[in-house]
Design a protein that fits this description.
Radius of gyration: 19 Å
Number of helices: 8
Keywords: Membrane, Transmembrane, Transmembrane helix
Structural class: mainly alpha
Order of helices and strands: HHHHHHHHEE
Number of domains: 1
Protein name: DUF1761 domain-containing protein
Distance between the termini: 15 Å
InterPro entries: DUF1761
Largest sheet: 2 strands, antiparallel
Strand content: under 5%
Organism: Chryseobacterium arachidis
Strand order of the largest sheet: 1-2
Pfam families: DUF1761
């Protein structure tokens, strides 16, 4: 029941790149962000291919972690040491009753939002304070990441693939 969904991980790993194009566009927060970090159009010139590829790879690592944060069935599997075959009958009974519980876009988005607000925001804020960055900088970057991982969590938790692409809609 708790299997890593490679397609959901892959699609979720593209979300930060897509959101970055939107969030950091000059017509939204791009100009303000560049001003806050001291970048100019001239400094931004050059090939970004490597940055984009590596960003997707790192985003895949984030998506893999978010899967464990948003899908409770991984926690149940962890309670039996990750070995479903040697688990007690009570584990199998539990998974029969609750195996697909709380597998929805909304539930995943909620847990990812909480991770963003309670983990990512403080992490960015602490770094920004030591780097002597403004609260404007903190809020631009925090807003981006909280919204981005909220969407990633929704995709990952709501997309259950057994034999293809299926969205879970129950419970």
């Amino acid at each position: 029941m708790a299997e890593i969904n490679s397609w959901a991980i892959f699609v979720a790993a593209l979300v930060p790149l897509i959101m970055g194009f939107i969030w950091y566009h000059p017509k939204l927060f791009g100009k303000a962000w560049m001003e806050e970090v001291g970048l100019t159009e001239e400094k931004m010139k050059g090939s970004m291919a490597g940055v984009f590829v590596f960003s997707v790879i790192l985003s895949g690592l984030m998506a893999l972690f978010i899967e464990f944060v948003t899908i409770h069935q991984f926690g149940a599997l962890g309670m039996v040491g990750g070995d479903e075959m040697n688990a007690n009958p009570s584990y199998h009974a539990f998974m029969k009753d609750y195996g697909m519980a709380y597998r929805s876009f909304g539930h995943g988005a909620l847990h990812a939002f909480m991770a963003g607000f309670l983990f990512v925001f403080p992490m960015i804020a602490i770094n920004a304070m030591f780097e002597r960055k403004s609260w404007k900088y903190t809020m631009i970057n925090t807003g981006y990441w909280v919204i981005t991982i909220t969407i990633m969590g929704g995709i990952i938790c709501g997309w259950y693939a057994v034999d293809g692409f299926h969205w879970v809609t129950q419970k």
